[in-house]
Structure formats: C-alpha cells, structure tokens
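Consider the following assembly input.
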Amino acid sequence: MNRLNVAPQSAAQPAAAQSAAAQSAAVETPASRALAITFAALLGVFVVGGVGFSHIAAAHNAAHDVRHAVSFPCH
Amino acid sequence: MSLFRTILLVALVAGIATGVASAAVHLFTTVPLILKAETFEGSEAAPAADSATHATEAHSHDAATPAHDHGDGEEWGPADGFERNAYTVLATVLTAFGFGLLLVAATELKGGLASWREGILWGLAGFAVFTLAPGLGLPPELPAMPAADLMARQLWWIGTAAATAIGLALLVYGRSPLLAALGVLIILAPHAIGAPQPASHDSPIPESLHHSFVVASVAVSFLFWVLLGGLSGWLRPRLGARAA
C-alpha cells in the first residue's frame, strides 16, 4: 500500500515491517522478535543454571547461602 | 536485536535492584538460620574466620563436617563473614538478573509489559513457578538436613517449574475449558509423581529452626518476585521506547 515507506533493512518483509516502522525507526519482524526472546531466555537459563545448579565446586561455594535461601536443591 | 537489548536492560536494572534489596533481607533473615544450622553439621566447632589470610581454609568442611563434604581436596570458597556475604549479594543479584531475563522474555511473548501492576501479576506467576511449586515437594532445606540424590532433586525441581509454567499458561491463555483442565493436570503431575525423598528424614536440625527457615525463605522469595515483576513492568515502557 504505502510504497513510499522505505524503512532500512526491511526489503525482505516490507508488509510486516510497516506497522513496526510506524512506531519506531527500528524494524521488527515476528522472526526477529522470536529470536530476541529465545536468546534472552537462553541467557536467563544459563545465568540461573550457573548460580543455582552448577556442580562446579567454586560456583557452589560462592552461591552456597543463596542456594539454600532461595531453595535451589543443594548438597 | 533491539528487542534483545530492551529485555537485557530491563532484566539488568530490575535484577540489580531486586537482588540488592532481597539480599539485604536474606542477610538478616535466612542467612543467620543457615549459619546456625551449620553448627549442627559436625560435633567439631565450625572454623571461625578471624582473618582474611585464612581465606582458603575458613570455609573448608573436610574433616570437621563430613556431612557437608563436597569433594576431596581444598576447593575454593569464600571466607566466612564479609567475603561470604559479598558473594551472597552477588549471587542474589545474578539470580534476580537470570530470573528477570526469563520473566521479561516470557512477557514479550504476549507483547511486553505495559505497567508495574501487570508486572506484579507476572511476578506472582514467577513466585508460583519457581518457589511454591518446587517448594511443595522440596521445601527449603538447611545444611545438615538429609536429602535425596542431588541430580534427581535438580531434575524434579526443573521439571516441576517447567510444568507449572506451561500449566499456568494454558490456564490463563488457553481458550477452552479443555485446555484449562489440561493445564491443571500438567501442574499437578509432578506432585503425583512425587519429589525424590531421602531414605530417612531423621535430622540433627531442630524442627523449630527448620520451620522458621521455610517461612523466611518463602516470604523473602515472595518479596523478590513482587519486586522483580513490579520493577520490570515499570521499566519496560520507559526503556523500551528508547531502545526499540
């Protein structure tokens, strides 16, 4: 419809990009949203895993009181 | 990747604030109870850290406290006192950041948080998923208490949290009574299976001490999740507009 709306990097999916481009300069497609959410969640799993579940002795000892206090399985 | 930056920033700021605040509460509530419980770990007195030069020995449990043994040899551990508490603050901040990432990522599936009140509702869901559900089968535990195999408990804990999250999503967002019923079943399933339990629950820890610890741990977790959710909801519209 609006062929003059040439958002940068949106050549692949101009239709999906239009609503997002109307609100901000950045272009967000459902695929890029899914990717961002997935990476953020994976990073979260990695961080929580390191603090609460890692079997590395140093990690356990550093986070020992937190593992008990937050009721992660410990020992 | 602008959404990724937004999630990261919201989780980081909310996580640092929540982590510092709840660590401060932990240090005055749960941590003293943990230290008290450690005195039951062996008949020998727990080593007191009177100087930083004993950093590698101060938290060693080798001979004096076999119940608390984590392996052979001298493994690094923070010295009791300031160093140990500093790591508690750091680990609480990291926990809040990690859970914040999971929380904010989940909310983005529904378009992102719009207000602190919406954030608190998601925080309550996090409390149910990561504290209440796993805590039903595996209540907060003090050092020196008997427990089943660590790996089995970790698997049950993770499976229960995942099942509760999926079940809650079906209850709230499923569009049919059938899906809601399925959600209830998925939430109950880990408890029907049952958490791994030790062969005997005989414990040197007085029941009253454990009870105080369970109450303190769950109460501080409640505070943690309300703060994390509320702050994330408050921050999301502010940081999102800038980073998007």
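The two ends of chain B are 9 Å apart (CA to CA). Ask yourself how this observation constrains the way the partners meet.
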